[in-house]
Amino acid sequence: YGFTIIMVGALGPLLVGAFPQGTLKKHTGTCSLSKYQSPVPSELEAVRMMKKQYELLTDRRCNIKLFHRKWKTAKLSVPDRVILAEAELDLAITVLTNSTTQGLAEMSEQPLAFFTQAREDLRHCMAVEAPSHQPSGKLKHWLQKLETAKKEETASCLEDAAIIYIFEVLKDLRCAAQREDC
Predict the structure, then answer these.
(1) Which of 25, 71, 149, 177 is a plausible cystine mate for 33, CB 3.0–4.6 Å?
(2) Domain for residue 164, yes or no?
(3) Are the C-beta atoms of residues 168 and 67 closer than 8 Å to each other?
(4) Are 139 and 45 in contact (CB under 8 A)?
(5) Total structural domains in the chain?
(6) Contact (Cβ atoms closer than 8 angstroms) between residue 174 and residue 43
């Protein structure tokens, strides 16, 4: 019995360090996206470095027009902005998790953790604030275009589009976080 207490006392600090600091945070009943209005500079730098590394590792330039839209994010309703940002982050997370570019995985660890937390926060806000919201026609059309691209485009072209336009995704996240002030 005494040995168990000593082992727990000795291993406790090691176990605390075994779990990453950036693990997903549990939510309460409130919704706050304010931290995404101005992401921490180190998060933005990690994303910038990942994009730069990607551009050095590959010369792909697929012609997916997924991020070329005729409408501005700021013109969407707040719930539509949240849905848009969540869908874009979901694409980014999917391509980074299943990267086809050798060497990108190491550079994408911090951005991937940031994107995953942001997506979780966006989902929570939709569940709390607008659980029955239906996307507007133009957003619904874009979401269908996204689903079609996921089915028809190659993994490498989806990766290319998601990473090349990653700062557009962050701009849409910022707009969703700013609510009516976007």
Answers:
(1) 177
(2) yes
(3) yes
(4) no
(5) 1
(6) no
Whole-angstrom distance, CA of residue 49 vs CA of residue 170: 15
The answer to whether position 97 is within a domain reads yes
Contact 148, 136 (CB under 8 A): no
pLDDT tens over the chain, length 182 residues: 343 334 334 433 333 333 334 444 555 567 889 999 998 899 999 999 999 988 888 877 788 888 889 999 999 999 999 999 999 999 999 999 988 788 888 889 999 999 999 999 999 999 998 888 999 999 999 999 999 999 999 888 999 899 989 999 999 999 999 988 88
CATH code for the domain of 149: 1.20.1250.60
13 assigned to some structural domain: no
Could you tell me if residue 133 is inside a domain?
yes
Element spanning 82, H or E: helix 78-97
Q: For residue 46, what are the domain limits?
A: 35-58+73-178
